[in-house]
Task: structure prediction
Amino acid sequence: MDDKAKSEVLFEITKDQLETGLRGFPVGYCTTSTVDPYKGLYYTGFPVADMADWDPLRVIYRLFHGKEGNPEELKKFTADIAKRSIVSPKVIDQIYLLPREGHPMKLFCAALLIAGMFEGTGDYQEDCLNITAKIPCIAAAVINRHAGWGKIKASKPELGYMENFTHMLNMPGGNTEELNKVFRLFNVLHYDHGGGNLSTFIGKGVASGLEDMYGSLCAAMCALAGPRHGKANQDSLAFVQEILKEVGENATGDRIESFIRELLKNDKLIYGFGHAVLRVEDARATILYKYAQERYKDFPLVKLALLLRERGPKVLGENPKISDPFPNVDAISGIVLCAAGFPYPEYFTVLFGLSRCVGIARQIVYERLEARNKRGTPIVRPKFLYKPLNEQTD
Ligand code: MLT
Result:
């Protein structure tokens, strides 16, 4: 790096920016994706909408290599992922010994540690590819175990990345074709969301202490499990279901608008709206709204979600303190899953994690093996200022 670049001031920190969740502070580089406040999510420089209907492995190849794979490269990559996808029966047996009490994300986090104990190689690059290949099986085993849906079916990677996941999931009934489509779309939209979302930041932070890939991803998934982050997809669905109970299937936009006003008056949260970075509707939400409109427009929760999309920003936007009054992906992702025949909200965050592990794993590889001329980034160690216990700050 030349002297000019070294001395370039990117950001000056003022005291009022302390204790604000590091919002907007640049701390590194991300080679996989970026989130533009006004344009939304970009994967390797291209809008996510361009890739929404791609095969998952084609998108993953792009995230991993920073460029589109040609047919030959994609064929090789697909074969490699298929070869790596078998999860040892020892790991599956241990997952089936986990308690069924508690949220399935707890089992998912534990399953990642277990997988690491039996299958970790200690090599970030190898483990990134291995976990990408194995994560559909690990997630399916966790959901089957937690839901009591019986033993996992033998993996058939030749079916396709997410098709194999649907196949291994023993969910009762369901239209497999419909589910495959929605799982694929959901998967592609959730791989990555820049370098600073909480789960990714935590995963990379833990890896900076040289914890291995599986442990780092477990930490990342604990971060994703929180209701302000990944579990927001489950909670947002519950929120819309509650409203549906209150207002009924045929509520008008005006009724929804006054309902939102009432909630705000009572200091209630409007789930699925707002984002730390975005200042327009989340690009992923836009894709899912379109999908829902095209396929499930008469599904009561979809009808209501569309009214909330129309009226929510109007009401929230009247409050100057709300910097982003627009819907984010969680406002609609769970509803689309329900409409497609996956009405199991407890597992929505596991689906998010199954996808996000891919992006985080690749970002960990960058930070550990490629950044700073292959030296890797140092251990994360920010500074906190001393403040006597009873001294108040805003
Ligand atoms: C995500 O996909 O990680 C969420 O939108 C949260 C974020 O970007 O901070």
